[in-house]
Fold this sequence. Notes:
Layout: H1 19-24, E1 29-33, E2 36-41, H2 45-54, E3 56-60, E4 66-70, H3 74-81, E5 94-96, E6 99-100, E7 106-108, E8 111-116, E9 119-123, H4 129-138, E10 145-147, E11 152-157, H5 161-169, E12 181-186, E13 189-194, E14 203-208, H6 214-225, E15 230-233, H7 237-242, H8 278-287, E16 291-298, E17 311-315, E18 318-329, E19 334-342, E20 351-355, E21 360-366, H9 376-379
Parallel strand pairs: 3-15
Antiparallel strand pairs: 1-2, 3-11, 4-9, 4-10, 5-8, 6-7, 8-9, 11-14, 12-13, 13-14, 16-19, 16-21, 17-18, 17-20, 18-19, 20-21
Amino acid sequence: MNNKNDFGFGTQIRKSPFFDATVKWGAKDFSVYNHMYIPRDFGDPEQNFWNLINEAILCDVAVERQVQIKGPDASKFVQMMTPRNLSSMQVGQCKYVILTNQHGGVLNDPILLRVEEDVYWFSLADSDILFWAHGLAANSDYDVEISEPDVSPLQLQGPKSRDIMVKIFGDEILDLKYYWFKKFIHNGVELIISRTGWSSELGYEIFLTDSDHGNDLYNTIMDIGHPMGLKPGHTSTIRRIEGGMLSYHADMTINTNPLELGMDKFINLDQDFDFIGKDALINISNRGLSRKQVGIIIEDNPMAGPNTRFWDVIKNNAVIGKVTSAVFSPRLKQNIGLALVDIKYSDIGEELQVNNGTKLLDCKIVKKPFYDPNKSLTKS
């Protein structure tokens, strides 16, 4: 590239409303997620990890597009899309949900927000749920409107995030419970602020409802938070694997089901409501799983970065699965990863091998998450 602002972008992929501010604060490279550019490089990813776990980082996650379900039948329609029982969900509450197709395959794992009595937002991972929802609505009699609202989230994550949020938004932030949200007005702009985030740390998501104010909001947060330890950053692959958090297109796809991914607590098969994929998941449960997602430790020198392709998992000279995510954790001083393996070789302590394309490496199945399994940090 010719200069720091010349990234060779085209018009077919959208820019975030925070784009210019992220470049101002040091974004060096971008990738694409949900048809939008996302900053993925503010320097050393290991330093980004330490910034997250010791202080706080601000992440542009406008790529988490919202699919809005609105109308008299919104609650029924949303319940039809997910295996998780939503009957007790209240306005102001967030829930992690899985969306499945008719075969039980995972389409997305968004955070669901109940914004109003008859308005919900799916805050998406990387797949086109807007099209899926339109298709479902077109082939049903539900009285709903499907749209993508002008909503773009930021994530402020890390142990200093609460103090920074109080400094900016006041003591009302202290009343915000884990997986709940409140509406705020800041500089005349409506925001929705939730106690959620993709970091396994204490944190908040700030949903901007007017994209014209994106750069102003990012700059304001950084200007106020920077003296308190806030750094510009990006979602940390190291921390999310430590926390056992799954990434769509890597650890799960349309060809994986939530039961083999260990998501049983989000799947209510024995309750009265119907959802797309219920029969398929019941059949999968009845016949038993053929594979299972596990945590692994890979014995080798520290990996230079995360895996960029799926690595074969080997047992007795046969391929019995694949590594979906792997990275070196500087805190744990180990190469850690997530793998999808044959159920026969999925027990804790099972010794396997990984082919990283260069050599065979010994690995062992261990418990996951690798760090803070009770999520005491995120719930603090």
